[in-house]
Amino acid sequence: MGEAHESETALAGGNASSAVVRVGDTVRKPWLPSTELTVAYMRALRGRGIDIAEPHGRDDAGRLVLAYVPGDLAMDRGPLEHELLGRVGALVRAIHEASVGLPVPATWDVLIPAHEPDLLCHNDLAAWNLVIDGDRLVFIDWDGAGPSTRLWDLAYAAVSFGHLFPPDEPEQAARRLGAFIEGYDAEDALRAALPRAMAQRSQAMHDLLQRARRTGREPWASMYSRGHGEHWRRTTEYVTRHEELWREALVRRG
Fold it and tell me: Based on the domain organization, do 154 and 192 belong to the same domain?
């Protein structure tokens, strides 16, 4: 890519991303040890009909080049309305189904590993990584992608899009969760396993931040200091305390 003289504009919004800039109609971000695998995964998903940013290789500075996705981040809207939550759930299901059959390299390290990973996943399907542009929904920031499981990936997405965060009113959160999972069209076994997995996934996020604070691993150590550690501690308590409410909300209706 030869646009070295185009102006660069820093992009904000993510928690763990750094040095991400926009150049014209592209986004440039650091090339990580896992980026080659990530790009191959993204291209495979695009080939299977998933709408995500098109990778364009590396620029003259060695950075990953991606097509810029216009729109607003879902997190800036607060809790999403139920109809939109259903659409997001359907998109998450489509990503999982498109990932079935793709190779799952044992050498691909991920930030928060799942037990017995058997599916390539985004691993951060959350409101801070969903761009909304009219009717178009696009997940961005695939840097943390890698081996996981459908349950582990869905559990994190369910906490985020259900907005299962204190002090939100639990009954309203349960209805949001139900709308998201109905959109996903989850099978009964997945629904039954999800409430406990959501608590475990929230705890795993807190544990990552806490370890990073002790070891100085960035950017998660700074995120802990900015309140993310306390947020996920309280979220884990909230999700665990209302497990039966989530279980009732996830029973398949009709």
Answer: yes
pLDDT of 9 reads 83
Q: Which residues contact 11 (CB under 8 A, 6 or more apart)?
A: 17, 20, 21, 22, 27
What's the pLDDT band for 216 if we cut at 50, 70, 90?
very high
pLDDT per residue over 71-128, tens digit each?
999 999 999 999 999 999 999 999 999 999 999 999 999 999 999 999 999 999 999 9
Buried-exposed string 125-164: b where 16+ CB fall within 10 A, e elsewhere: bbbbbbbbeeeebbbbbbbbbbbbbbbbbbbbbbbbbbbb
Tokens of 197: 């997995």
Q: Give the residue numbers spanning the domain of 137.
A: 72-249
142 and 52 in a common domain: no
Residue 254 binned pLDDT confidence (cut-offs 50, 70, 90): low
Based on the fold, state whether residues 29 and 155 are members of the same structural domain: no
2 in any annotated domain? no
Same domain, 20 and 143: no
